[in-house]
Amino acid sequence: MALSLSTGEAILIVVLVALPISLATFVLGAGNALKQIGKGQFSVEFDSDLPQRASDGPRAGSGEAREAEIRQMLEAKAYRQRARGEAPLDVEAELAKLLADRPPGRPGADPGRAEEVRQLVVARNERRMRQGQEPLDVDEEVERQLQELENLGQ
User: Fold this and answer.
1) Do the Cβ atoms of 48 and 56 come closer than 8 Å?
2) Which percentage of the chain shows pLDDT scores above 90?
3) Is there a contact between 110 and 97 (Cβ–Cβ < 8 Å)?
4) Taking the alpha carbons of 145, 148, 153, 154 in that order, is the dihedral positive or negative?
5) 113: Cβ–Cβ under 8 A, 6 or more apart, which residues?
6) Model's pTM, two decimal places?
């Protein structure tokens, strides 16, 4: 018995054999290509990608960083005003005014916030004691958390 294939059957067999092979090659190759997206000599590095010790300049939460950012915004505003032909604002005077508007105060100057943080610390201590852990010093922890909250606003 002679086996004869028509041209259509031969093409169908070739397609059915080649399709899984090409699909497997594509999936394996695309996985490597997707891992390479965003990498290379022209990629952009963000501050969040860098280790903390490699960051330059003032710390993000410090007053120096806040002052530098406000100064940059005011200088940009003055530049835009000059470009429009308007009288630019005095950057130093405006900076001093903005920094004076928000007195540094001591952390926890708001008694409501301090009481709320204290309640949270007491609840955390109760949970730690139920778990068999050593309780935290409430006053120290309240002061630390108020300081962290204060630094978030800068």
Assistant:
1) no
2) 31
3) no
4) positive
5) 146, 149
6) 0.34
